[in-house]
Amino acid sequence: MNIRPAVASDVAALFSIRTSVRQNHMSLEELAELGITPGSLPGMLVGTGRGWLAEDGNYPIAFSMADAEEATIFALFVRAEYEGKGIGRLLMVQAEQWLASQGCKEIWLETDADHRVRANGFYRHLGWQEAGMQDDGQVRFIKSITLG
């Protein structure tokens, strides 16, 4: 397995992974309603945004994305057949370290508030703390980070 920075030519792979997940699934149409499209995604990988793609050989299996201006990790998705292998944790570390290198001290993310969603326990296990419900039904997690 290899983790590398995601680039504009990876957009199709990122959408393939995002629409393949079992929990917190969204279709291409639902993503487009949120403004996440093949045209908008490349802009989220440059400037204050970055992404990382995990591959098994040449097969894209997971990705994470972060935005330093917002101090947020806004995407972390792993293909179902690769869950439980530590890939999500490695991608989270990549995103957290990059945000710290950009001067972020406290970062946040939001996810489905449903207690049955495994992501909630995953984030808690990695040291994230629940910070409250959002108006859209998502739960916000926060984490203090340092470089190193």
Descriptive notes:
Helices cover 25% and strands 32% of the residues. The chain is an alpha+beta fold and 148 residues long. It comes from Cellvibrio polysaccharolyticus. Pfam families: Acetyltransf_1 (PF00583). This is GNAT family N-acetyltransferase. Keywords: Acyltransferase, Transferase.
Record the strand order, biggest sheet: 1-2-3-4
- Helix count from the secondary structure assignment: 4
- Tell me the β content: 25-35%
Count the E strands: 7
Global shape: globular
Instruction: Summarize model confidence as the mean pLDDT.
Output: 90
- Helix content, binned percent: 25-40%
| String of helices and strands | EHHEEEHEHEE
| End-to-end distance | 23 Å
Category by helix and strand content: alpha+beta
| CATH architecture heading of one domain | 3-Layer(aba) Sandwich
CATH topology of one domain: Aminopeptidase
CATH H-level homologous superfamily name of one domain:
Gcn5-related N-acetyltransferase (GNAT)
Report the radius of gyration as a whole number of Å: 14 Å
**Uncertain residue segments:** none
User: Biggest β-sheet: count, sense, barrel?
Assistant: 4 strands, antiparallel
- CATH class value of one domain: Alpha Beta
